[in-house]
Amino acid sequence: MEQDFLLLRKMRRGDETAIECFVRKYYPAVLKYCSLHIWDKHDAEDLAQETFERFFRAFEGYRHLGKAENYLYVIAGNLCRNFYKKKKAAPVSELPEQAEETIPVLEEKMDMERALKQLPYELREVIILRYFKDLKLKQIAKMLDIGLPLVKYRLRRAKELLTAHLKEE
After folding, report:
1. Predicted local distance difference test score (pLDDT) of residue 109
2. Shortest CA distance to 45 belongs to which of 90, 10, 81, 79?
3. Which ranges of the chain does DSSP label H, i.e. alpha helix?
4. pTM (whole model) above 0.70
5. What distance in Å separates the CA atoms of residue 142 and residue 114, rounded to the nearest whole number?
């Protein structure tokens, strides 16, 4: 957290190296986050780039109160939500590009992706933040601006639905 504060201070002074360092530090995590919501690789990349564009457009008014990464996730989450509103349909998942993965592993990943896609957005969001981004429940509550009991409920409900979807397959 201290590193972020110093990095953001340098960025405010117009240090191009600090800006590049910030993007390099957080772009992979934001891209993965977007990829978990939007299974089309190109759309996820576009949304990750748009996340940083929006962050830097609003940078003057940004107050560092915690983790910059969480703020980036909020922006990316809003963009993903808006993406689905525009599309009105979930995109079809792509097969992973890694050829060394075995068929059972690929099938398991595809089953999980299908099950995740069937979850309502609010439940999928909590699952992604908890298990794929490894955030604590309190962080998720603060980030989504909801109460901790609601986070716990959504997490429990998402697990129930995922279990049911995976048992069906």
Report:
1. 67
2. 79
3. 2-12, 16-37, 41-57, 68-87, 103-118, 121-127, 137-144, 148-168
4. no
5. 28
